[in-house]
């Protein structure tokens, strides 16, 4: 089983984890890390501590913004991994649920990454579809 790390600005990562635990119950090998008021140096130290516990394991890191500080701090440290390491920006609750569902189905990290890359980030409701939605 691979590790999942959720890294965001503020408390979003922790809130994502709270919601996931309400849906799935207790979760192993998943961590949430938020960049709060502590600053980049302190956040980087927390990233180092977290990565020290997963350095020889496969890891999927899901961040809020590609190019944001949490994303960049993990990207800078990606060379420390001898195992599979995948970093995504643009995390959402549907992406997290999909990743966990696939992991629970014993999909490999490579398979999960392939499927996550196929996800569309948004579902759009078109006004002209309103009649069909009301019929359901």
TrEMBL record:
Pfam families, sorted: EIIA-man (PF03610)
Domain named PTS EIIA type-4: residues: 1-136
Protein name listed in UniProt: PTS sugar transporter subunit IIA
Source organism per UniProt: Lactobacillus panisapium
Chief location of this protein within or outside the cell: cytoplasm
Localization, UniProt: Cytoplasm
Keywords for the protein's UniProt record, in alphabetical order: Cytoplasm, Kinase, Phosphotransferase system, Sugar transport, Transferase, Transport
């Amino acid at each position: 089983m691979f590790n999942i790390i959720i890294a965001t600005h503020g408390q979003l990562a922790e809130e994502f984890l709270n919601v996931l635990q309400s849906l799935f119950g207790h979760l192993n090998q998943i961590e949430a890390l938020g960049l709060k008021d502590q600053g980049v140096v302190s956040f980087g130290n927390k990233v180092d501590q977290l990565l020290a516990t997963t350095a020889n394991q496969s890891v999927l890191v899901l961040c809020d913004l590609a190019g944001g500080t949490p994303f960049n701090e993990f990207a800078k440290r990606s060379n420390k991994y001898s195992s599979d390491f995948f970093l995504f920006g643009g995390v959402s609750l549907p992406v997290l649920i999909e990743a966990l569902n696939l992991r629970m189905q014993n999909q490999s990290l490579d398979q999960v990454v392939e499927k996550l890359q196929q996800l569309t980030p948004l579902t759009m409701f078109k006004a002209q579809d309103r009649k069909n939605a009301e019929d359901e």
